[in-house]
Every structure is written in structure tokens, then in C-alpha cells.
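User: For documentation purposes, I need each entry recorded in a consistent format: the amino acid sequence on its own, followed directly by the corresponding C-alpha cells. There are two entries in this batch. Please keep commentary to a minimum and don't merge the entries.

Assistant: Recorded as requested. Entry 1:
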Amino acid sequence: MDKLRALHYFVAAAEEGSFSAAARRFDVSVPAVTKLVSALERELGVKLLDRSTQGLALTARGAQYLECCTPLLAQLADADRALATPGARRARSLVVGAPPLLSRGLLVPALSDWHERHPHVHIDLRTMDFLNLKDTVTRGVDVLVALGWPGSVDLVQRPLAQSRLIICASPAYWRRHGIPARPSDLTGHACTLVRSPEGTVLDLWRHTREDVVDEVAVGGWLTCASRDDALQAVLLGQGVGRFADLSVWPFVRDGLLQPVLLDWESSDSPPFSALIRPEAKRDAVVQDFVGFLYDLLRPVEVTCSEAFGARPSVVRPRWYASRPGRASKSAQ
């Protein structure tokens, strides 16, 4: 048995949640991956992965073994790179997960600049609308750009920027329906809502101005599971939306969105951060990409601060990660 290859296949299968995804990562057949992982289990005398129709799940012993193997494989990769011919670079992939609004408006237009510095790196960009670290889609991602509050997870968090939630609609929508004077006036508008992966409809829009709090449960005829879909509806003049300013800055800059109520501060404004696995802290490519993200977002944050106001304090809202329902109900 090629134990090193078996270890790579086991780690990939555990990260991806399936043998087929692990096979695609190494461009081999599914039986090849299954055979070596099974041989590894026989040699160790323990079951590492539970197989089911829903995919793969680590056993308790498998999780312990994965924790030991992952940093060792990373160290071996570092050793290989250290012995490479001076000036030569091995081709590799960098898997990046990011919210679609950020990807489309800011990240993708700037990626070519980073690629010029790292021509040997293939970027595998995966859009993830909401941060759901328990979802198998996040497995195998090298750098995850998170919008929100990740909480206590086994990932290293690097702060990137602080957003400010802004109320927006198309100029045509405001001309037809009028501009609200205060947040409570939004009850008379068609507000496009977003549902979190946990099933929470984010209908509680809380604003403050000096010592005044204006908390309103908004409503409308459209609720989306994707912020990207919500933005599209708002751009088409179908309603009012609430978005992180860094994500929609290009649309505001180009006059496609018109923000209102800028003299009110949203207390639920989420931060942007980069999440990486602990063993990647010494990966030069990963660290350079995180630095690239920081350099990309910070100037936009400064521009948005000048356009929309100072950054609000970062406070995890009461409704965050709540059960299915409406945020306005969970906050009561």
C-alpha cells in the first residue's frame, strides 16, 4: 500500500465529505480512492470514515487521526517546496470561498493583479452566500471570506474590514414611492428580505441615532435565500434592500443604487474576515492572499466611510444563528 497517497486520499475524503469529490481533487477514479482508504483502515485496525447515502462522516478515531495527519502533510509539502530548484515554483491550486456580491463587485476584477504575482497558482473560486461552517461546501477551502460572526470554530480568523449596513433602492423606486424620513417609515415600503441558512427571515432592521433606537419589523412580497437574488430584485426596482456597503459599493458608485437614512446607524452591521485552517498559517501563498484581501478591502472601507459614515461597533445581534422563523420574533 502507498501509505502517503492513502493519507492524502483520506484527508481529501474527510474534507470533501465524499470519495467522488476526493477523486476529482486528485484526478483519479473513485475506486482508486476507496481502495486505498479502505486499505489504510485495515492497516490501522480502526474505522476512520462512516459511509452512508448522505456521504462520509468522520468517526471519533477518524477525527483524531485527521487532526494528527493534516499538519504532517502540510509540513511535508513545505519540505518539498524548500528543496525545489531555486527560482522554480510548483503549480498548485488555491481554493477561495467568498460571498457572491463581494466576488462579483470587488474580488474578481482584482484577481488578475494577484495572479500576475503568482502565475503558478490556479484559483478555484467558490461563491458562498452565507457563512455556514457546518456545511460540507466549506470543506477543502483554503481561504474563506466570511461576512458575519463565525463564532467559535476550529479556524484561524484574520480581520479584513468592517461593513456598514445601508438601506438602498433604485433611483426609480424612490421616485415612485418616496424616500423614508426615518427607519420606521420602511413599514410602508416593499422590503426585499433574505433568509439565513438556519431559516431565519432577516426582517428586523435596527437603527440608532445618538440615543434614539428605531427598531422596525419590515415586510414585503419577496424573500430570498440569496443576497445576490435580493440585490437583483432591488436593482430592478422591485423593492428596498439592506446590504453591507462594501459589497454593493460598485452599484452605488455607478448610480444603480441610491442609499437613504445615512444619518441612522445600523447596529447589526457584520464584519468581513478571512478564515484559514490552522496548518495554513505558515503557507506563504495563503498568507499572501489574505494580505491581498486586506489591501483590497481596506481602501473600499475608507471610501465607504467617507460616503456613508463611520463604521459601527461590531455587536453580534440577538437573532444571529437563531432557529427557523423571523428575526423580529426571535428578538422578542
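Entry 2:
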Amino acid sequence: MAIIEAPAAAELVRRATELVPLIRKHAAWQEENRTLHEEVLQAVTDAGLMKMRVPVRYGGYESDVRTVCEVISELARGDGSIGWTVSTMTISSWLAGLFPDEVQDEIFADPDVRIGSSVSPNGVAVPAEGGAGLTGRWPFSTGVLHSQWFIHSAVLAGADGGFSPVLIAVPTSDMTVVDDWHTVGLRGTGSVTTTVQDLFVPEARILPMLPLVLQNQHRSELNAGSPMWRAPFSPITAAGAAAVPLGMARAAQEVFFERLPNRKITYTTYERQAEAPLTHRQVAEAAMKIDEAEFHVLRAAERVDRKVRNGEDWSIEERALARMEMGASTRRAKEAVDVLNTASGGSSIYSDHPMQRIERDVQTISLHGVLHPNTNLELYGRVLCGLEPNTHLL
């Protein structure tokens, strides 16, 4: 496959920005149908935004983390569901680049391949000749409805009776989809449950997780020299995932100000909501929280890019800080949406008003096990207090 010149960061962000009206046009449809609209997916693909973390030799861009975050934030400004799905597919492409090169040749044979992933080890792989038999059930399989490949987390049974976490690349056609995505938020992601039973997986498609996460070791020779694969998994994931609630908060801010000129405060003498001191306080508070969320996202992204450029190692504290940044930005984004939703009045509860969807989406994403603010703050505090981290996702 011919190597193409990657677009500049500003160009990729511009393309994402131009897609916002189209994404918003289909946001209600995506929520009602619990899946992404094909026109939205095709537009994102045509804009090249699925290639940001694809190896250059397969026509990808190998974009830096800040670019990825700014693009994802813009997509999420259109609709949180497309933002979250593209964020997941972007990190999934990066994960695929950790597998042996012959596996990558198989996965990226289609230049427009989409890849989903799940980080919860809800499967068990039992060694067999030439590979392993995989059985599992994975809720929250984001991207599976639109992907040709999926990277699942599982545990590999050892001869000593123990288990070790692994990543396993599986064609989506080998999995069974359970249509159970009946949720209050992020409905458009279609993050259904997937299952497999005694599925044989070749050894090359099984990747030990702990060396990947903690020692940044992988099995690709051709990607070994690329800066994109010299950064640890968790800090990369933290920045990209946290960009989604940031985009949601910006969307809430836009929705609020679009309605503000024609709104009054019912049962008061304020004929214009914009004249009320309470409104001034609310919009200022929300703007401050959005700025704080952006600060954490960009600081996390720039830390990864800087350390990759300089070839610096990562301390446990820096890895935990990345998780803290993700939790802090999610919290601030949710708080901003809460303030703007509260200021939007009773008319905002109608199903055709985007504010109620944004409120539900940001609440949903804040409950995600990896983004959950309290969990990430506790993790960072443990490390600051000299204790061992209580997770391998660092």
C-alpha cells in the first residue's frame, strides 16, 4: 500500500469541525435507533479521521495525541456517540499496531477497516495447539456494529492454574452480537454485548497485556521505530477518551447560547434571561469549568507527545496522573453541562431539545469505569501516598 502524506493537524481538526452540522442532523436518529447513521460514519471515513492512529505503511497518519484529542472533541461537539465511537476506534487502531506484523497485514488489508475494542477481561482463553480456545461475554462492545475486527480483553489460562491478562484480535464475523444496548445515554454508540464460545484464536493474535501496559513491549517489528508506539497505553487512552466529555460540554454551551436571546425567566419580571445576574453567574461558571476540562485534556495529550519526542521514560506517578487528568476533565465537563442544563428551564426536557440528550450522555460517560472521576482520583492519591496502584491499566 502506498504511503500518503498525512494532513496537517489543523486540517484534520477543520475537517472534523465541518462535519458537526451533519452529525447534529442525525443525532436524534442515532439515539432512537441505537446505532450510528451510515452517512455520519461514511463522512468521518471520507474525511480520513479513522486513519489518525493507523500505521503509515497502511495509509495512516500516525497523528500525535493532541491532534487526536482536538478532532475527537470536535466530533463529540456534534454528538457524544460519534465522539466516543471514533475515540474507541482510534485507540483500537493503535492497539492493532502492537500485534505481530503479519496480523496487522491481515487486519489492515482493507484500507478503510474499522476496529473496535473492549478493555474489560471478560473472556477466558485456554491454550491449544497453535493458539487458544476463547470463550467470553463482553458488554459495552463499542464499535462492533460498524467494525470488521475487534480487540477483546481476556485472561489466558496458565499451566500453573493461574491466569494472565491478554488482548485478542478477533474478526467481528466470528462473534455473536446480543442486542441489549437499551440505555439512557450514549445510545447512538450501539455498544452491545458480544459473545464467543470455544473460538479458536491463532497464537499470533494473542498479545500479553501486562508487558504492553507496563513495559510498553509489543510484537511489531515495523512499528518499533515509530514515535506513536513508544507511549504507554493508558496515558494515550486517557487523553483521547477525556476529549469526548469536553466536546459534549462545548455542545451544551452552544445550545444554551443559541436559545438565550429569546428566553425569559418564567414567573419573574425578567423578560430576557440574558439580563439576569443569575444567568451571568451560571454561564461564567460553566465557561470556567469547560476551560478547566480543556486544560486537563490538553496537558495530558501534550505530556504524551513531549515524552515521546524526547524519548523519556514514564514513572508510575506520571501514569497515575494521566488517569487523574481523565477523571478531572470528565468531572469538570459534567459539572459544566449540569450548570447549563439547570439554567435551560423546563422547556429543555422535551425530547427534541438537544440539551437533555447531552445531559444524559455526559452522565453516562462519567460512569465509565476508566473515566470515573472518583476512581481516578483515588488511584492518583494512592500513588502520591506511596502505595502500589490497584490497577494494571496504567
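Summary note for entry 2:
The domain at 9-113 is CATH 1.10.540.10 (Butyryl-Coa Dehydrogenase, subunit A; domain 1).
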